[in-house]
């Protein structure tokens, strides 16, 4: 396994400082707003872009108040809709994230969306597996505050990194076609844009903690500085977050430790705002391998394939740094400056990512061919009385820059243009270590990969009338990749194992939105996506220099409606997926043994309907009802795509009265299939519930020096339903009898937050 490794509330300042405070609040809001809104390329009626119009937009409103106070309009709903969008788009509110268990991965915020599957290997804090419209998460574009997060080599995305649910302002979810203005890779299954909360102009210190099932607990703090330097030329507000989470693990030998540190500051500089951001994630956990049906019958549903080897596992439910052990250290930081000069808004975002970690395993073979420390490739014997311990190390350094310019050209024509550059260097190194001495014995492979990405784009938005919006965009992606396998070079004495490749592609998008009547808009969109081959084209059997990028053409059309109490949308979509890269066996002429080779042999069609509804019954009651219908299959092989159920349904409600807020949700997923296209993932229905009570003010609270106290209680899998989430191979006999992984049973979590 690879590592990837708010708006300020009014502050009681002096009247002379009020104007500055308001200006700062707008600057803070623009920092969260600008990337979300300008990425859509929307133009207001008089040619004014949304980036120059503070007060409009979901992400300006979402973090209003303090960093620990989300507006009721966001807490009392899970989804909102943009009536002027020219593509399918849902704004998942902070209300959805705030109702989750605070130790959950933030990707669980997607689980109520149509045609979405979210599963986890035992616990969400160790990572989720996400499928949208039949596409896995390495075929979905993920961003945080506008920064693409997918691994540049395999396009993998690791859900347990980057940001906790507590600090999320909201997510823009594009389940298919997306604007050319969204940077990133692998957007076949859509784009998921998540935005962090901004700091508050009001100082506070929050103590956080919780305890729940399977020995899970967390404790931490969130500090808001408040407005600093209000009378200076650079007024600033910032927050700092630190948290530790531990779980014993429900399944045998699956404990986990996670530490997170985050920082964000926003400074007003001239006509713009400078945002600084830092996140660090340190995590250790033992991997859950699953069990055969026979072992489940013998040991119960807590069975783990790793339980039977105490030599390398150590004590029960103790973190083992040897066998099934994973360790991650990940850092992401960025600096973004955005300012408006006249009618032109310019932003530049420089970022750096470091991921370092490994997955541990053990091998019982007596000898292995390894690249030894002395540079010689050859046979190495297992240590006397011990095993080969494996550390699959991956070390990634990635930096990039995103430049954007947004401006009206005429009163009804707007332009957004920019360029994304990304440089990624990763070393993949499977090291073998002596279990008795800890000595490094050599590497099965040692592969540095260097990737450069260049992606310029432009996006026009034209409003010939108040009712009609037209959008046209184009982005160009050029990828340069260099690869070395030092083990192969040593084995062949320099005749193999070094490759370079270059790919380029052009991706257009067209969209239209028309207002039929008050509260009813219709839209249609066409988007072309393309992805260069992953780096595995080099190490899978035989290198294929003719391997071409995968391509997808997305068509969608729909209606967005808002009748006050009832809002929602219906989207009909089709994705034609071409040149899908598949591995197959090939016997060269004159050879007696087959080899593996990658080739563009696959075609797929993903088509369906997504229907979303939100009901604001009154000030206390809101509800949602979402339905997804999906047909996703590889047309060339005539088999279904993995994790592509024919139907999903989600129903739920939120009740708010006084200090109480309760949420109950039920979601149903029909049968799907695992990656072998024949092992079933059975249909299942799961219910979750949450309840929160918040004390604000009052003599007791104020007497303790508190601004508020909040107590939350979450129940996941309310009715204790069990089902197979996935299968696992890679163990003796598992190719014919895959190991089974089940979902977690009913679990509880009690959380507490005290804000001073």
TrEMBL record:
GO terms for biological process: siderophore transmembrane transport. GO terms for molecular function: siderophore uptake transmembrane transporter activity. It is found in: Cell outer membrane. One of its GO terms (cellular component) is cell outer membrane. The keyword Membrane applies. Keywords: Cell outer membrane, Membrane, Receptor, Signal, TonB box, Transmembrane, Transmembrane beta strand, Transport. Its main location: membrane. It is a multi-pass membrane protein. Residues 1-36 form the signal peptide. A motif (TonB C-terminal box) lies at residues 739-756. InterPro entries: Beta-barrel_TonB, Beta-barrel_TonB_sf, Plug_dom, Plug_dom_sf, TonB-dep_rcpt-like, TonB_rcpt_CS. Residues 84-190 form the TonB-dependent receptor plug domain. Residues 302-718 form the TonB-dependent receptor-like beta-barrel domain. Belongs to the TonB-dependent receptor family. This is TonB-dependent receptor. It comes from Thiomonas arsenitoxydans (strain DSM 22701 / CIP 110005 / 3As).
């Amino acid at each position: 396994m690879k590592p990837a490794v708010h708006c300020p509330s009014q502050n009681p300042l002096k009247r002379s400082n009020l104007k500055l405070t308001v200006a700062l609040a707008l600057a803070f809001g623009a920092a969260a707003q600008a990337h979300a809104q300008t990425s859509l390329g929307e133009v207001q009626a008089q040619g004014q872009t949304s980036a120059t119009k503070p007060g409009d937009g979901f992400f300006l409103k979402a973090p209003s108040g303090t960093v620990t106070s989300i507006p009721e309009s966001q807490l009392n709903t899970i989804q909102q809709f943009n009536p002027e969008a020219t593509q399918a788009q849902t704004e998942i509110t902070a209300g959805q994230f705030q109702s989750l268990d605070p130790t959950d991965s933030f990707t669980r915020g997607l689980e109520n969306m149509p045609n979405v599957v979210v599963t986890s290997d035992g616990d969400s804090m160790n990572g989720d597996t996400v499928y949208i419209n039949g596409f896995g998460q390495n075929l979905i574009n993920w961003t945080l505050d506008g920064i693409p997060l997918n691994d540049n080599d395999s396009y993998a995305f690791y859900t347990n990194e980057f940001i906790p649910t507590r600090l999320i302002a909201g997510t823009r979810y594009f389940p298919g076609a997306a604007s050319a203005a969204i940077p990133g890779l692998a957007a076949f299954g859509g784009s998921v844009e998540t935005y962090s909360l901004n700091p508050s102009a009001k100082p506070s210190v929050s103590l956080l903690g919780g305890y729940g099932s399977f020995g899970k607990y967390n404790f931490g703090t969130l500090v808001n500085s408040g407005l600093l330097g209000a009378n200076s030329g650079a007024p600033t507000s910032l927050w700092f977050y630190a948290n530790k989470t531990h779980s014993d693990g429900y399944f045998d030998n699956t404990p986990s430790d996670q530490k997170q540190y985050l920082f964000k500051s926003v400074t007003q500089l001239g006509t713009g705002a400078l945002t600084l951001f830092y996140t660090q994630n340190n995590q250790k956990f033992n991997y859950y391998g699953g069990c055969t049906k026979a072992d489940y019958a013998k040991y119960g549903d807590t069975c783990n394939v790793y339980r039977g080897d105490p030599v390398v596992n150590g004590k029960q439910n103790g973190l083992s740094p040897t066998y099934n052990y994973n360790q991650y250290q990940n850092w992401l930081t960025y600096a973004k400056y955005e300012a408006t000069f006249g009618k032109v808004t310019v932003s530049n975002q420089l970022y750096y990512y470091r991921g370092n970690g490994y997955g541990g395993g053990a091998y019982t073979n007596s000898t292995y061919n390894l690249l030894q420390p002395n540079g010689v490739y050859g046979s190495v014997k297992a240590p006397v009385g011990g095993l080969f311990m494996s550390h699959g190390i991956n070390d990634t350094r990635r930096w990039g820059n995103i430049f954007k310019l947004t401006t009206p050209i005429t009163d009804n024509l707007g332009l957004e243009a920019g360029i994304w550059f990304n440089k990624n260097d990763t070393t993949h190194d499977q090291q073998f270590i002596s279990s008795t001495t800890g000595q490094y014995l050599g590497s099965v492979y040692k592969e540095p990969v260097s990737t450069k990405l260049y992606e310029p784009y432009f996006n026009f938005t034209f409003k010939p009338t108040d009712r009609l919006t037209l959008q046209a965009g184009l982005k160009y992606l050029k990828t340069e990749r260099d690869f070395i396998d030092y083990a192969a070079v040593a084995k062949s004495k320099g005749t193999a194992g070094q490759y370079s490749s270059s790919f380029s592609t052009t991706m257009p998008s067209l969209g239209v939105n028309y207002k039929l009547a008050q509260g009813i808009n219709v839209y249609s969109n066409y988007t072309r996506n393309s992805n260069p081959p992953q780096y595995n084209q080099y190490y899978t059997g035989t290198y294929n220099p003719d391997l071409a990028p995968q391509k997808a053409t997305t068509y969608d059309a729909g209606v967005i409606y808002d009748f006050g109490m009832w809002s929602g949308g219906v989207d009909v979509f089709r994705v034609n997926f071409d040149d899908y890269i598949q591995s197959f066996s090939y016997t060269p002429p004159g050879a007696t043994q087959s080899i593996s080779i990658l080739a563009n042999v696959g075609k797929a069609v993903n088509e369906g309907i997504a229907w979303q509804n939100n009901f604001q019954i009154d000030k206390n009651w809101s509800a949602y009802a979402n339905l997804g219908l999906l047909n996703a299959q590889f047309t060339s092989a005539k088999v279904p795509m993995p994790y592509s159920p024919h139907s999903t349904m989600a129903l739920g409600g939120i009740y708010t009265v006084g200090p109480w807020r309760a949420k109950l949700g039920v979601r149903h997923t029909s049968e799907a299939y695992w990656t072998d296209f024949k092992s079933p993932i059975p249909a299942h229905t799961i219910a979750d519930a949450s309840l929160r009570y918040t004390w604000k003010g009052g003599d007791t609270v104020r007497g303790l020096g508190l601004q508020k106290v909040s107590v939350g209680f979450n129940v996941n899998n309310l009715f204790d339903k069990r089902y197979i989430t996935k299968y696992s191979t890679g163990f003796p006999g598992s190719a014919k009898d895959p190991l089974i992984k089940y979902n977690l049973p009913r679990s509880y979590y009690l959380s507490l937050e005290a804000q001073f």
